[in-house]
């Protein structure tokens, strides 16, 4: 089985509140179906979650009653985004159902906790794809916190023996600078722990769950001697399908692990 993260930068316009990239998502779902691979999917919140979460500092935990309407709105928005993605998957012939983290999981000091994943395993065993996503989750210490898609990916990679992990973004891979602002930025084809330390942590788009550096650290933690973690550009037609099929594709491959 292959674990896929559909990043918020691909499935939404992260700068425009509640803007769904339906055509891109539809194509990505078709590529997943065409690959014939057994997969599990997590997706980011993008502009359906990050804009309000940042404005009301939801990842800082409960500070005032003024945050409560924002919590409710973000939870509503990300569930609507998830429903649209589940619809596209089902339309592509992939049986999928929503698993909202905020409805069934807890966090403790911003660390996700959902046991051994029994519910998720049960669905997978029946041939149903559980779709999880970034969400606002109740936190024992802080009242509530942001549960990012990357955190969910890490937890799932501990529970399941995935052969490969693929992060789908809106860039070709990891660069030594922001390729959207610097046309001479160099793509890293492979990344290990030493390479990671030389990578800039700034991201071209604000992200309440961490910048590029933190995302790469997350990817590195998901690698193993038998598992690669790939960052690929989902805005380019065919690249996700090629990555799923093990074909050579423009991307960054993380190897070697990190503590």
Description of the structure:
- Strands 3-6-2-1-9-13-14-12 form an 8-stranded mixed β-sheet, sandwiched between helices.
- A hairpin with a 3-residue loop joins strand 7 (135-139) and strand 8 (143-147).
- The chain is built from 10 helices and 14 strands.
- It has helices at 8-11, 22-35, 50-55, 68-91, 101-104, 118-125, 149-159, 193-196, 212-221, 239-244, and strands spanning 2-6, 39-43, 96-98, 106-108, 111-113, 129-133, 135-139, 143-147, 164-169, 174-175, 187-188, 190-191, 228-233, 251-254.
- The protein is of the alpha/beta class.
- Helix 2 packs across helix 4 (68-91).
Number of strand segments: 14
Query: Rounded to an integer, what's the Rg over CA atoms?
Result: 17 Å
Q: Strands across the major sheet, in which order?
A: 3-6-2-1-9-13-14-12
Assembly classification? single chain
SSE pattern, N- to C-terminal: EHHEHHEHEEHEEEHEEEEHHEHE
Kindly estimate the percentage of residues that lie in beta strands according to DSSP: 15-25%
Which descriptor suits the 3D outline? globular
Largest sheet: 8 strands, mixed
Intertermini distance: 24 Å
> What class would the helix/strand composition place it in?
alpha/beta
Mean of the pLDDT scores? 91
State the low-pLDDT regions, or none.
none
Helix content: 25-40%
Count of helices?
A: 10
Task: Provide the descriptors you would attach to this structure in a database record.
259 residues; alpha/beta; two-stranded antiparallel ribbon
Strand-helix topology:
Blueprint: E1 2-6, H1 8-11, H2 22-35, E2 39-43, H3 50-55, H4 68-91, E3 96-98, H5 101-104, E4 106-108, E5 111-113, H6 118-125, E6 129-133, E7 135-139, E8 143-147, H7 149-159, E9 164-169, E10 174-175, E11 187-188, E12 190-191, H8 193-196, H9 212-221, E13 228-233, H10 239-244, E14 251-254
Parallel strand pairs: 1-2, 1-9, 2-6, 3-6, 9-13, 12-14
Antiparallel strand pairs: 4-5, 7-8, 10-11, 13-14
């Amino acid at each position: 089985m292959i674990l896929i993260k559909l990043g918020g930068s691909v499935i939404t316009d992260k700068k425009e509140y509640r803007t769904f990239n339906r055509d891109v998502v539809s194509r990505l779902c078709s590529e997943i179906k065409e690959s014939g691979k057994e997969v599990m999917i997590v997706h980011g919140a993008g502009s359906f979650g990050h804009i309000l979460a940042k404005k009301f500092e939801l990842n800082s935990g409960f500070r005032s009653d003024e945050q409560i309407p924002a919590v409710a709105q973000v939870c509503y928005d990300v569930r609507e985004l998830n429903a649209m993605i589940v619809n596209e998957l089902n339309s592509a012939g992939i049986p999928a159902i929503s698993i909202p983290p905020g409805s069934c999981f807890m966090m403790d000091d911003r660390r996700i906790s959902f046991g051994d994943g029994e519910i998720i395993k049960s669905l997978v065993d029946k041939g149903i794809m559980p779709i999880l996503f970034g969400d606002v989750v109740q936190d024992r210490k802080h009242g509530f916190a942001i549960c990012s898609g990357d955190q969910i990916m890490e937890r799932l990679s501990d529970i399941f023996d995935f052969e490969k992990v693929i992060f789908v973004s809106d860039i070709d891979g990891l660069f030594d600078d922001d390729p959207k602002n610097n046309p001479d930025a160099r793509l890293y084809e492979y990344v290990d722990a030493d390479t990671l330390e030389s990578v800039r942590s700034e991201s071209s788009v604000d992200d309440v769950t961490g910048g590029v550096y933190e995302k790469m650290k997350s990817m590195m933690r998901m690698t193993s001697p038998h598992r690669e973690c790939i960052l690929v550009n989902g805005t380019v037609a065919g690249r996700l399908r090629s990555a799923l099929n093990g074909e050579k594709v423009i991307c960054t491959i993380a190897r070697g692990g990190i503590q």
